[in-house]
Predict the structure.
Amino acid sequence: MRQRIDVGGSHGYPLFLGVPIEELGGYLEERYGARGHYLIITNTLVADLYADKLMNGLKQFRTELIAVPDSEEEKSLNRISKLTEQALRCRADRDTMVLALGGGVIGDLAGFFASIFMRGIRYIHIPTTLLAQIDSSIGGKVAVNHPSGKNLLGSFYPPQAVWTDFSTLDTLPWKEIQNGLAETIKHALVSDPNLFDFIESHTEEIKCADFKVMKELAMRSLAVKVKIVSEDEKEKGQRILLNLGHSFGHALETDEAYKGVTHGQGVSIGLAAASSLAHARGLMTDSQLDRIINLLTKLDLPTSIESRDPEILLNHMSADKKNKAGNKILVLPVGIGKSSVATDCEDEEIVKAWKKVIK
Ligand SMILES: NC(=O)c1ccc[n+]([C@@H]2O[C@H](COP(=O)([O-])OP(=O)(O)OC[C@H]3O[C@@H](n4cnc5c(N)ncnc54)[C@H](O)[C@@H]3O)[C@@H](O)[C@H]2O)c1
């Protein structure tokens, strides 16, 4: 079933959910007219899978496709510069619209490109990974990486629309589904106890990528993000709750220079560590902590990591963008389905939480 949900805020936009990729052209014609120049930005892997479907629906328009290599490293200023040259060769102008076809990397890269090309052109994201469908395509953040830090150069630049075809999940490998699942469990812990129950009672279907269950999971999960970002567009308030598990997770990713632990694995171990800290503070019961660890484990997500120095990990957390005036700002779960911001966590407590997840 198709649905439309509007993301609120000063620059609201619609999410079209459960819509076939090949039908985007019809929507564009109806919404923006029969003429137009569309620049599809995708990567080589996604182009092989879905570019024909998209282009078949765009035959009435002048359309060009740029496929970049499939890598997080493409989220760079160097690639932005190359995209600029390619776009100019395609005679792109201020009326050109970018169609970002792919996961979070393409959404961030193409969205950031759209935000600065000729001082900003319009773009639509067609997210093809679970993570992009439930998380990165919602909230208007676009960015590229810099040698000094991930997502260091970016802006808030909402798309015209998000066009989500859940059937693209059929080709997504399990390890990529897991990246999205870690964020889905995070959404459940942040504010939706019923979503947590749903995931708990459908782990087998999720592991078989049962379409109906995956779609429901994605719809419920993205609703959490839509609600939070609609109320806090620029991350001035409760949007920080979406950082649950990420301060710990980023520290692990940094420790491995983004080469070892995947983002989903980092978030999963981060959720386990944050839950442990919350448990030690009396914010959750033994059985709630067990439920969280069991659910992550059932979905083959890690909840611990081999020998690491907790002091070094603590040190990585000092560089977290969310910290304020030298204080570590941590999001902690409160039971299941509620979360809170802690500004008073002592280093000792954090080290203890790390020790709980280091084997
Ligand atoms: N802007 C935001 O708010 C936000 C939020 C979270 C994450 N992010 C960013 O998102 C990125 C991670 O996104 P991601 O997890 O989607 O990674 P990704 O875009 O690299 O996609 C993961 C892999 O799946 C492949 N793929 C994509 N769709 C496919 C499909 N349907 N079938 C088969 N393979 C497919 C990709 O080619 C890639 O190899 C990071 O750069 C992260 O910083 C941004």
Summary: The chain has two domains: 3-171, 175-357. The longest helix spans residues 211-231. The pocket of nicotinamide-adenine-dinucleotide is lined by residues 43, 45-46, 49, 70, 72, 75, 102-106, 108, 128-129, 131-132, 135-136, 139, 141, 151, 168, 171-172, 176, 179 (CB under 6 Å). The chain has a mean pLDDT of 95.
